[in-house]
Specification:
single chain; Isoleucyl-tRNA Synthetase, domain 2; about 950 residues; alpha+beta; four-stranded parallel β-sheet; about 20% strand; globular
Length: about 950
């Protein structure tokens, strides 16, 4: 028996095709799994999604893609710039990548179908320590390692059926890119926004590089290596981001409008900027009991609690502490232990012979308790880079101060100077500090009974007269430290001359290229220092012997502007042209919440700077600080993998240690006990990683895309479960069967479905029961198509609910299956609409279906637009009858089928109409026309849900 290789999937359609050679030959062949004619009558063919992917990827490549932005971009209003955060080329894409890039491609394809000229570029965040570490470990150049990884990951990306514009591909480690990163540095330097200064820095002893504050975690460890960070004083390069801090803070309000940016991201940025309005207060110091004409300055946002100060604490880097440590070995030994302490440590070192005086002690009406001199501690919980590096300890009204006080003065009472109300006793608050604003207590002297906010303002004014306080503004944000003592990054384009000082490298000498380095040797400090050919040069100003700067830039500098380079990636002379700059900002930016502070804050700063230059002419001197790089930010949730855990040891089990004969009841191979199941962040140590390439090769890219979008809302954590993809594959199979059957039906388009239904409605008055039944199926399809268009459009626009797009399309698929007796014109148009709505999610599958329904048309992405809701038939296609639950005094007494009530009816008219319709039914007449439930005796009626429920109120 020969093998049948037919494009037909539906059983009935396939049999018709076999019996009709001309029809069989006229329909182009789909890709299906092979089967024999003998089995044709028993089952339908299984669609080969993987082959369909391959086929259409080849066609797209031949035609240069499906989403085609113009080479010469039009005005911003005609474009939509979609950008997922570009990947670091580690060599392997993970499911998190698959999720974010699927979302980006869906948005891009949707906007393209809506008629926008879409830009969806892809590139590589290629500089960074991992490549350099790999070079040291493998004795291979970072460039070679990185380039190889990029090639592998590009292959993986292309398997995802994405519509990337590879003509715009860029890599931050390519000289054509980092030449302009260096130009950006020089532009900032010219404006005084890039400067060099001696500073105490965070030193990673493992990676041997400086870290920005943001790259040190809450435990004082490096974000990359995990090593305990050390403090060193080095000359470093900084970007003056602080000059833009007000704009960075103020524009968060604009980004909050219409939920353009997630609230979590805005909150984190606001907290990191850390604007605080308060007072700088001086605490005079006594040494050996004598006034030494010195004071410790403390910044506080709560001057109202000044009466409650019971100690003063200093950071280890405070100048007073540094000076005292020179002559106090015990103090120095304590300071040396601080890096190894946990972040929540309450240890402290009491400075001997040093006391502080509360500035209110000089006020006559201050209670005696406040006039007592205060102990001074060195405490790790005090931050040296915020405020003045000193805090006033108020155990009664601050949680950290309370914990520290109890650690060192367990038996000493805590002074409460505020209470929730004037009548409330402070005794109840002795165990926990009262941290809110309230009313001043008797411990506040003449301020007793005043509200704490007003009292705080008066206290500052009082101390200002004595020159012991002043109102000030403080920020947590510090200038951006960009120096890195590593190799694999953008070289800083500065030459150090003994005569001229730091001199910018002239534009014509850019880029300053990275030299070749012998990776068989390890290097301490900057590897660039080991290359005499790189280091030794001449001064551009005086031609004297000089040295190049041997630091490279933080890789966040690259990602702070790469989105702008995509607009003009081949420009050799400028980062991008002013004309290309008009396509900015990015319309939809997609990436993880973990970049809320670092990358996004730096990108906002750099874009505001660029907006002040001629590169972005759409901004003026008055508006450049309001410029934002990303109009809308979408943050997708993480992907968690299924882990199997030994119930006895709690150990994560390897794949070969779990018996999955019954996937719902996994067993530990060794003990035969049931393994515990949990979903955890994917990692090698938990044995729960998934290779998306393997998954795609098994199920196809389209099914994988639909599955990853369907399983959870975009912003939620996705618990990856391979077994659940069967729901998606069954749906695609079922839909393909329907499309094939519809395509095989004789059809000549003479009228649209709308005109067909409008004309048919006019003859319903004389229609037979069979014709009315067919009308019902056709009207049901039309109604559900319009409902789906409205719902799916809203979900695509909102992005975060893409999962409901898949569920809505599944529902519409069922509607088509339930109404197979509808006319070909209605079914075919509904099928085309369904396919065009699913095209952004399953592009290859949609192309295949489109080719069946419209064999002479080009790609679906070129021959149709995204459908719009058609309300012209709303009244005509209303259901002829619908179930109506009849309630009597709030309890359902029966369900009858009646027509939907006219929309204009209300009140008594609606009641009378519904009574009439209900009583005209057989069940209604039997149950509600007399006796206990006589509807005609109802005092009133309340109809809800469009007449699907009505409650009659009877006596």
């Amino acid at each position: 028996m020969p093998l049948l290789q037919s494009r037909l999937i539906g059983c009935a359609a396939a049999r018709r095709a076999l019996s009709n050679p001309s029809l069989h030959n006229s329909i182009r062949r789909p890709i299906i799994a092979q089967t024999t004619i003998a089995t044709l009558s028993r089952r339908c063919y299984a669609i080969d999604l993987i082959s369909i992917d391959d086929k259409w990827r080849t066609k797209w490549k031949e035609s240069n893609g499906t989403v085609k932005p113009s080479d010469k971009l039009a005005d911003k209003k005609d474009n939509h710039y979609v950008l997922p955060m570009f990947p670091y080329p580690s060599g392997t894409l993970h499911l998190g990548h698959l999720r974010v890039y699927s979302i980006a491609d869906v948005v891009a394809r949707y906007r393209s179908l809506k008629g926008d000229k879409v830009m969806l570029p892809m590139g590589w965040d290629a500089f960074g320590l991992p490549a350099e570490n790999a070079a040291i470990e493998r004795n291979v150049a970072p460039e070679k390692w990185t380039t190889s990884n990029m090639a592998k990951m590009k292959e993986q990306l292309e398997l995802m059926n994405g519509s990337w514009d590879w003509n715009r591909e860029l890599s931050t480690c390519d000289t054509s890119f980092y030449k302009h990163t260096q130009k950006l540095f020089l532009m900032l330097h010219e404006r005084g926004l890039a400067y060099q200064a001696e500073a105490e820095v965070n030193w990673d002893p493992v990676d041997k590089t400086v870290l920005a504050n943001e790259q040190v975690d809450s435990n004082g460890c490096s974000w990359r290596s995990g090593a305990k960070v050390e403090k060193r004083n080095l000359k470093q390069w900084f970007f003056r981001i602080s000059e833009f801090r007000e704009a960075l803070l103020e524009e968060l309000e604009a980004l909050a409008k219409e939920n353009a940016w997630p609230e979590r991201v805005l909150a984190q940025q606001k907290n990191w900027l850390g604007k605080s309005t308060g007072a700088s207060i001086k605490f005079p110091v006594l040494a050996m009991g004598h006034d030494i004409r010195a004071a410790i300055e403390v910044f506080t946002t709560r001057p109202d609690t000044l009466f409650g100060v019971q100690y003063v604490a200093l950071a280890a880097s405070h100048p007073t502490v540094v000076k005292l440590a020179d002559s106090d070995p015990e103090l120095q030994a304590f300071i040396d232990t601080i890096p190894g302490l946990p972040a929540d440590s309450k240890v402290g070192y009491l400075l001997p012979h040093l006391r502080a005086i509360n500035p209110l002690a000089y006020h006559e009406e201050t209670p005696d308790a406040t006039k007592v001199s205060l102990p001074v501690y060195v405490a790790p919980y005090v931050l040296g880079d915020y405020g003045e590096g000193a805090v006033m300890g108020v155990p009664g009204h601050d949680l950290r101060d309370n914990a520290f006080w109890k650690e060192h003065h367990y038996d000493a009472p805590v002074r409460q100077v505020l209470s929730a109300s004037e009548d409330e006793s402070t005794t109840a608050m002795e165990n926990e500090p009262f941290v809110e604003h309230g009313v001043m207590t008797e411990h506040s002297g003449s301020f007793k009974g005043k509200h704490s906010v007003a009292a705080g303002e008066e206290i500052v004014k009082l101390l200002e007269k004595a020159e012991l306080a002043e109102s000030v503004e403080k920020w947590r944000l510090r200038d951006w430290l960009i120096s890195r003592q590593r190799y694999w990054g953008t070289p800083i384009p500065i030459i150090h001359c003994g005569t001229c000082g730091p001199v910018p490298v002239p534009d014509e000498q850019l880029p300053v290229k990275l030299p070749d380095v012998d990776w068989a040797e390890t290097h301490s400090g900057s590897p660039l220092e080991s290359s005499p050919e790189f280091v030794n040069t001449t001064c551009p100003k005086c031609n004297s012997a000089a040295r190049r700067d041997t630091d490279t830039m933080d890789t966040f500098v690259d990602s702070s502007w790469y989105y702008a380079r995509f607009a003009d990636p081949h420009n050799q002379d400028q980062p991008f042209s002013p004309e290309a700059g008009k396509t900015l900002p990015v319309d939809t930016y997609i990436g993880g919440i973990e970049h809320a502070i670092l990358h996004l804050l730096y990108a906002r700063f750099i874009f505001k700077f660029l907006a002040s230059t001629e590169l972005l002419p759409q901004y003026t001197e008055e508006t450049y600080k309001s410029a934002e790089p990303f109009k809308r930010l979408i943050t997708q949730g993480m992907v968690h993998g299924k882990t199997y855990i030994d119930p006895d040891s709690g150990r994560f089990l390897k794949p070969d240690e779990v018996d999955l004969t019954d996937p719902n009841k996994p067993k530990v191979v060794a003990s035969r006990k049931s393994a515990n199941i949990a979903y955890e962040k994917m990692s090698k140590s938990k044995y729960n990683g998934v290779d998306p390439s393997e998954f795609i090769s098994k199920y196809g890219a389209d099914a994988t895309r639909a599955h990853i979008l369907f399983q959870a809302p975009v912003g939620d954590i996705l618990n990856w479960d391979e077994g659940k993809i069967t729901g998606v594959t069954r749906w695609l199979q079922r839909l393909y069967d329907q499309i094939t059957a519809i395509a095989a039906e004789p059809y000549t388009k003479k009228v649209s479905a709308r005109d067909y239904l409008a004309a048919k409605h006019e003859s319903l008055g004389s229609a037979s029961a069979k014709e009315l039944a067919q009308w019902d199926t056709e009207a049901a399809i039309w109604r559900d198509v319009q409902r789906t268009i409205a719902s799916v459009t809203a979900s695509y626009d909102e992005v975060y609910s893409l999962n409901t797009v898949v569920s809505d399309l599944m529902i519409l698929t069922n509607t088509l299956a339930d109404n197979i007796k509808a006319s070909p014109v209605v079914k075919r148009e509904a099928a085309q609409t369904l396919i065009s709505m699913m095209a952004p999610i399953t592009p290859a599958f949609a192309e295949e279906c489109w080719a069946l329904l419209r064999p002479s048309s080009p790609s679906i992405f070129e021959s149709t637009n995204f459908p719009k809701v058609d309300t012209s038939l709303t009244e005509l296609v209303r259901p002829r009858v619908q179930p109506c639950a009849v309630q009597i005094n709030g309890r359902v007494r029966g369900v009858v089928d009646i027509p939907p009530p006219p929309a204009e009816l209300a009140g008594d008219e609606l009641r009378d109409w519904m009574v009439k319709e209900i009583l005209q039914t057989e069940e209604g007449a039997a149950r509600f026309s007399g006796g206990q439930y006589d509807l005609r005796a109802a005092k009133r009626a309340i109809a809800v849900k469009g007449g699907k429920t009505i409650n009659f109120v009877l006596k």
